[in-house]
Amino acid sequence: MRITNTFLLCLAMIFSQSVYAADKDESKAPVQISADSLQVMEQQGTSIYQGQVKIKQGSFELSGDEVIVKHPNNQLKTLTAKGKPANFQRYIQEEKTWVKGQAEQITYDAKSRIVTLTGNASVEQSSKHRISGPELIYDIEKQTLQANSSPSQKQRISVTLTPDTEN
Questions:
Q1: H or E stretch including 14?
Q2: Residue pair 68/48 in contact by the 8 Å Cβ criterion
Q3: Number of domains making up the chain
Q4: What is the domain-level CATH number for residue 58?
Q5: Rounded distance, CA 120 to CA 83, Å?
Q6: Global confidence as pTM
Q7: Which residues pair with 99 in a beta bridge?
Q8: Which coarse location class applies to the principal site listed for this UniProt protein (predicted)?
Q9: Which of 61, 69, 133, 162 could bond to 47 as cystine, CB 3.0-4.6 Å?
Q10: CB–CB of 120/126 below 8 Å?
Q11: 63: domain range?
């Protein structure tokens, strides 16, 4: 395996442009990745991180057993984290709150700017609001969330909304 400094720099630049950064200053923060192993297939445009993978940029954190990054021509196409479960958290500066999520698989599609959580998926905001189900799809551009049940497995969507008690 041959990893060039240029490739690693490009990978860091790709991530730094990701939508996960909580604000514009964080989008320029360095990306830190740790894992037990890394396999880079530069010609295929794929990197596979395995073993307690942790990705951090500013307040955004993603962790899983395996993270597969598709980056043809050094352009981020998809990022898929798998785990039992895979987890993410992000601080939303405007709302002064944390958003945390988990699923067996978390996939980010850079072109469509859609995050899909599948397999026992849940997203929670500051221990107040929570949505869970077999599949959650968040469209970053439209700021919409779609939750899908699984009739074959008899899994349904669950939503918990906690009223603000300060008012």
A1: helix 5-16
A2: yes
A3: 1
A4: 2.60.450.10
A5: 11
A6: 0.78
A7: 90, 125
A8: periplasm
A9: 69
A10: no
A11: 5-160
